[in-house]
Amino acid sequence: MRQIVLDTETTGLELSDGHRIIEIGCVELVHRRPSGRSWHRYLRPEREVEAGALAVHGITNEFLASQPLFAEVAAEFLEFVEGAELVIHNAPFDVGFLDAELARAGTGKTIASICCVLDTLTMSRRLHPGQRNSLDALCKRYNVDNSGRDLHGALLDARILADVYLAMSGGQAALGLDSAPADAGGSNTAGRVERGAVFIPVIAANQPELEAHEQALLAIERACSGRAVFRRAGGGSGDP
Fold this sequence. Notes:
This protein is 39% helix and 15% strand. It is an alpha/beta fold. It folds into two domains: 2-169, 2-Layer Sandwich (Nucleotidyltransferase, domain 5), CATH 3.30.420.10; 194-240, no CATH class. Strand 2 (21-30) and strand 3 form a beta hairpin. It is globular and about 55 Å long.
């Protein structure tokens, strides 16, 4: 299974006001392990960065003046993400901006036509209703180190989100994108935490928890139009 954790930075918040993407950061996961591959570009937006956005990401108009247009790297971007599941925090925001750039570049494609999308904001709200679910709040909740995040940055935030997503969705022995990439057979164990001989109790899910889990699987399958990884790995018996 190939996933791309993606984040963008923009000139401002409102797409309807003509704001543009100025940075895209992507981190690849293969079978829920960092592959070591990433894709990162700054982009010339052909408009000014708003002061409010500058305060968030610190990317100046002067720096962006020498960067490529999205149209110049669109084919490269599409090649990297096509066919993957995109993992994005507040996906409608990023997907809306990406679709606008793809249309402006004349690619004839949308994100939905080449990828399925998993929104970690929706996922976190379902798991933690009534709580703060910003990326910083999730880092604190899942003990993910975001100490280097003084300013937002697309690649940095994609790396942090990858750790948060793996923690939030379970099944990762040790987080951190500095671990060695998995080999083709997925047998790499670098970065695994050795905990010694400790007793780990196994608590079986009760019926309401099983039913809630089944509903979550169905929601994922509807969103991605495919069978959940949990089922393909032999967990659960339902069909999408």
